[in-house]
Amino acid sequence: MCIFKQRILLCSHILLSLLVCTSISLGITKANAKDNQLKIVLGKQISPETLAAIDLTINPDGKNLPKGSGTPEQGAKVYAAKCASCHGPDGKGGKGLADPVVGGIGSLATKAPVKTVGSYWPFATTLFDYVRKAMPLDAPRSLSNDEVYAVSAYILQLNGIMKQGEVLNQTSLPKIKMPNRDGFVSKRPGYKH
Ligand code: HEC
Q1: Atom of ligand 1 nearest to the CA of 151
Q2: Contact status, residue 103 vs residue 116, Cβ threshold 8 Å
Q3: Is there a contact between 103 and 160 (Cβ–Cβ < 8 Å)?
C-alpha cells in the first residue's frame, strides 16, 4: 500500500473515532439535561423471578436451600429412573460408567483412596447444590426440589449417613455431618466449618 493510501486510511480512522466519541458524549449530555443527573442507560434491573432461577448456590450453612423435602425411599425411585444408567444400579459406578457416588469411607488415608460423595465431600449441602445444578448429566435442572432432596437422601442412605424413613429438608440437610467434614483445612482466616 502506498504512503498516500495509508494516510487516508489513518485519517478516516481518526474521523470515525471522533464521531463515535462525540455521539457518546452527546448521549450522556442528553440524559444529563433531562434529569440533571447521570443515568445508567445500559441493561435493565433483573426481576426477582429471573434472579431466583440463577441464585442457586447453597453454602454449608444451608441458608439458600429451597422449600421441599424427600426421603431415601422416594429417592430410590428417582435414582433408578434418572441416575442408575450412568452411576450404576447400586451407585458404585463401574467400567465405562460415571463416578461412583457410594463407598470409599475411611479409605482416603490408605494407599488406595476412593473419593466419592460419601467419603470425600465435607458438606451434604454440596450434594444438593451439585445435583440440582448439574444432574442428570443429560438433563440438568430438570429435577424438582423435592426430587433433589429425595435423591440426595437416597445417596446419603446408601453411604450409611442417613437412615430409611428420615426426611431431608431445609432444616435437616445442613445438620448432617459428613464423614470427611474435618478432613479439610481452610486457608481462609477465621473461617470455621
Ligand atoms: C448421562 C450420565 C449421567 C446421569 C444420567 C447422571 N449422572 Fe451424575 N455424573 C455423571 C458424570 C459423567 C459425572 C462426573 C462429572 C464430572 O466429573 O464433571 C457425574 C457426577 C455426579 C456426582 C459427583 C460425583 C463426584 O464424586 O464427583 C454426583 C453426586 C452425581 N453425578 C449424582 C447424580 C444423580 C443424583 C443423578 C440422577 C438424578 C445423576 N448423577 C445422573 C453422569 C451422569
Answers
A1: 35
A2: yes
A3: no
pTM of the model: 0.80
* CA quadruple 151, 91, 61, 174: dihedral, nearest 10: 60
Model confidence pLDDT, tens digit, residues 101-124: 999 999 999 999 999 999 999 999
The Cβ of residue 99 has, within 10 Å, a number of other Cβ atoms equal to 13
3-state secondary structure of 70: strand
Domains and CATH numbers, the chain: 1-43 (no CATH), 48-183 (1.10.760.10)
CA 97 to centroid of ligand 1, rounded, Å: 10
Pocket around ligand 1: residues whose beta carbon is below 6 Å from it?
A: 82-83, 85-87, 98-99, 101, 116-117, 127, 130-131, 135-138, 143, 151
Element (H, E) at 31: helix 3-35
